[in-house]
């Protein structure tokens, strides 16, 4: 929102212009000097009031930064809750899969039993029909007494025993199979009840997970809103300072002179800073060379769709910032660590770019298709690139090493997430903490 020109500034300018009309007249010179002195005194008073307002707004901005830090802490807590809930969901899905497999095996076993029972029933019915057709039950005693000799009697006795044993075995097996059949039907009902309970719990956990994600998105929106307020208040302070610069030509001239001096100071500081950066890079490269045989651990791959791309300190968040060269919009998040720290793909995808690109330095871009939506992740300032364009990569797969190439002041990873294909640093970039836990 554009600030209105303060009334006291307009009065001051009008007074100065009015005085300039009379300054050429010698008789009015003394009066003009008094007017200028009075205007200068009023200007100093207004400046003091503005300084007081600036100090208060600076204090307010500090409080807002504290609020933003608190929101980040809350987001971290919700991220941990989301990871825990996802783990529970995964466990229940595994349990459901195991129970489904057990139910399928029981179904198959019951089908086999039912087939055996049906076939055995037919056999028993057939034997009963044979008995009825022969006029009654078979007299095993008549069979024995009809023997022609003792040897024939022994053979007949053995055959009768075999037939009786077969009948008894058929009846016992039929009873046992029917009992097993009933037990398995009860067991499958229990399994189905367990399955239903697991599904109900899964629905509850998924609803809880959606609620947690919604809370996180709300906090991220609040975080970005607070960041925007900080930028707006900072711009307000800059506009007010510009108004002060426009009030007095004498002050303006002094500022111009001072700026000329500071330009040279800044130029010299830039030269010194570039030299310092070159020395620091050389020092880091020397350290990396000395420690090249020491393995730097890769980040732990978390459950879910996304994982953290590297290990280290979360050094800069998404949004407006000032790193010494004026206000700028930061399109990603920074993670600082030693040169050569492993960088992994944050999700499954295809490498769409892997080379040097302007201020990004050595950069890798990976395109992902997740639940029908396209995302692009960006990994910048790398010291090494371990993949090539067109290569398929898995979540957690090593793709490069941390470095300080491009526009960078030290070894770190600049990480961006774009909702859609990458078509510029800010066009569709979103806050990475919406998807990745830092």
Total number of β-strand segments?
Answer: 13
Class computed from helices, strands and strand pairing:
alpha+beta
Q: How far from one another are the termini? A: 34 Å
Strand content: 15-25%
Q: What is the CATH C-level name of the domain at 295-434?
A: Mainly Beta
Mean pLDDT: 75
Describe the global form.
Answer: elongated
Task: Quote the CATH topology of the domain at 295-434.
Answer: Glucose Permease (Domain IIA)
**Alpha carbon gyration radius:** 43 Å
Name the CATH superfamily assignment of the domain at 295-434. Answer: Glucose Permease (Domain IIA)
Helix content: 55-70%
Specify the number of helices: 5
**Main pleated sheet:** 8 strands, antiparallel
Q: What is the chain-wise order of helices and strands?
A: HHHHHEEEEEEEEEEEEE
Second CATH tier, the architecture of the domain at 295-434:
Distorted Sandwich
- pLDDT < 50 runs, ≥5 residues: 1-30
What features would you highlight for this structure?
alpha+beta; disordered N terminus; 3-stranded antiparallel β-sheet; elongated; Glucose Permease (Domain IIA); 13 strands; 438 residues; 8-stranded antiparallel β-sheet
